[in-house]
Amino acid sequence: MNKGIKLFAFIACLVFSVSPLAAQTSGGSNKGFIIGLIVAGAILLLWAIISITDNLLQIEANKAGIDPEKENMSLFPKFKDLFSKGAPAYVQDNHFVRLNKGFDIKLAGGISDESIHDAAVTRFSLSPYNFRGISPIPKVVVAVGDEVKAGDVLFFDKKNPDVKYVSPVSGEIVDIQRGAKRSISDVIIMADKEQQFATIEAPSLDAISRDELVAFMASSGAWTLLNQRPYDVLPELTDVPRDIFISTFDTAPLAPDSKLFIQGNEAAFQKGVDVLNHLTEGKVHLGLDARSSKSNSAYAGFENAAKHYFAGPHPAGNVGIQIHHINPIGLNDKVWTLNVQDVITLGKIFTEGKYDASRIVALTGAELKEPKYVRTYQGANIAELLKDNVDSNNYRMVSGDVLSGTAKNGEGFLDLKDDQVTVVEEGDQYEAFGWLAPIAPRPSVSNTYPWFLYPNYKHRANTNTHGEKRAFVVTGQYENVLPMDIYPQFLMKSIMTQEIEKMEGLGLNELTEEDVALCEFVCTSKAPLQELLREGLDYARAQQ
Question: What's the order of all strands across the beta sheet hosting 244-247?
Fold first, then answer.
């Protein structure tokens, strides 16, 4: 309801309430009714003056570039400010955003012990499929039987030969697997017990131009750590990002605690942030966790980065959501994103002179005997990560979280950007009248199920979607779990009809799969929204 409608409703109520009162006080004469109208008119005039003044203030604030999320330039307090909690004390003068839309899925199989175990993994992979935008058949510069060190070049894109894709570990090349149409699917390395690293002579940031820094990062493998939005692609060497964003926490189901990533790697993370500052004309932005009343962020003390605190349910930790509330992606904007462990890898290239792709990975899920953290490297074989730890005969392995991760078989490898493996029960049994019969507890946003009364109950979920694909109708469900100022349902319909202008106008450039994963979870129509969004992003990129 806009201000004009609210004002009309207010005046109408005022006239109908004041007029009888005035008429009663004057013995029911017409004079009382006239007095009532005069009083209502005076109040209306006063309200109009205040409303016009308020609008002029907002217009001048926009001209001055004042962020409405940080400063309320209205004469009236925001409705949400009257009833929502304020920022925690540790936020101080930093930007704070409290998100009310979203949903936390509570699942069994979380990690209770923060000890980090060494993973006995022998096989690792680097897959071209993890890099959007490169040709499906890159130029492979190694052969089966070759010995490589961590940081040695494995392949490069024929369309962009200056960008090198390097090995995450040292060892022997044991297989080069091919997929559809002879595309390269995996370059598989049998890792050495003692890792060896290719020596990298990193330049000083004080004595290097941006072009020289870009060339060094391309040749050393560091460039492949970057991700560009829109479209989630590797940036071109000539691209200059408006800003660079790093989310330092994850709110997805069973997500790892990112404070473990930074322990002992503080210097490398800071150096990574410093490097990123040399690549952008704007700022490096850190999204920090403010969900607790006490400060628990291990990232608050880093320099050369603008800090923004976020509180609220999932997807508050998604970098796309944070970008939207910090500085949304415009039609012609390009921004870069990295995760925490990629920033550490980037920093170690400059602090230690080596490509260190070591990763802390959370093994989670109710089907595991012991959910735990393990230390491994990029592209680890998932079956080896989970060896002797699965307590089920009917399960699905997912690289990532259950909302936006990728299903893997026994020969699958950890995807490049993932720091989590989730194991859940395979939902391959038909449930007759499941919506009507008494059923086991399951995560749901609907309060028609009685276990919403137990918000901290942890569900043992499976992969069953509890229904088939249905008519795609407007329900308003997506807007309740997506804290962005867009209309996702209309966006999806415009993707279906391939209306490029509508797609971009409705916010396509701001989204990636993980941002709509929760919308897919609540979708009554069972529409594959993540797949549909990717089709829209690829179509829009092809039209450039």
Answer: 95-98, 306-311, 284-289, 244-247, 335-338, 227-229
Residue pair 320/512 in contact by the 8 Å Cβ criterion: yes
Query: For residues 119 and 191, is the Cβ–Cβ distance under 8 A?
Result: no
What pLDDT does residue 45 have?
84
Q: Answer whether residue 112 is part of any domain.
A: no
Q: What is the pLDDT of residue 448?
A: 73
Segments in the chain below pLDDT 50: 1-3, 5, 21-22, 26
Q: Is residue 383 part of a domain?
A: no
pLDDT of residue 512: 97
- Domain end (from 64, 83, 102): 83
Q: How many domains does the chain have?
A: 3
Alpha-carbon dihedral 434, 439, 445, 450, rounded to 10 degrees: 130
My answer on whether 213 and 345 are in the same domain is yes
SS (H, E, C) 24-44: HHCCCCHHHHHHHHHHHHHHH
73 burial class (0-12, 13-18, 19+ CB within 10 angstroms)? middle
**Are residues 425 and 460 in contact, defined by beta-carbon separation less than 8 angstroms?**
yes
At 72 the pLDDT is 61
Bin 17: left if φ > 0, else alpha if -120 < ψ < 50, else beta.
Answer: alpha
Please name the residues in contact with 30: beta carbons below 8 A apart, sequence gap of 6 or more.
Answer: none
Structural domain containing residue 47:
3-83
Tokens of 331: 């039609």
pTM greater than 0.70 (yes/no): yes
- In sequence order, the 6+-apart residues with CB closer than 8 A to the CB of 25 are 32
Q: Look at residue 16 in the predicted model and tell me its pLDDT.
A: 53
Predicted pLDDT of residue 311:
96
Measured distance CA(390)–CA(371) in Å, rounded: 10
**Dist. CA 28–CA 19, nearest whole Å:** 10
Q: What is the pLDDT of residue 1?
A: 42
Which sign, positive or negative, has the C-alpha torsion 257, 259, 262, 264? negative
485, with CB counted inside 10 A (0-12, 13-18, 19+), is: exposed
Element (H, E) at 376: strand 372-377
For 123-174, the three-class secondary structure string (H helix, E strand, C coil) is: EEEECHHHCCCCCCCCEECCCCCCEECECCEEEEECCEEEEEEECCCCEEEE
- Please state the φ and ψ torsions of residue 518, each to the nearest 5 degrees: -70, -35
Question: Do 469 and 346 fall into the same domain?
Answer: no
Same domain, 471 and 341: no
Q: Retrieve residue 206's tokens.
A: 């004080």
- Contacts for 488 with CB less than 8 Å, ≥ 6 apart: 478, 479, 482, 507, 511, 516, 519, 529
Q: Is residue 495 part of a domain?
A: yes
Q: Which of these three, 287, 320, 351, is where a domain ends?
A: 351
Rounded distance, CA 324 to CA 340, Å?
A: 19
CA gap 346, 103 in Å, rounded: 33
Which among 267, 248, 268, 274 has a CA at the least distance from the CA of 419? 248
Q: Which residues contact 439 (CB under 8 A, 6 or more apart)?
A: 431
The alpha-carbon radius of gyration of the chain (Å, integer) is 27
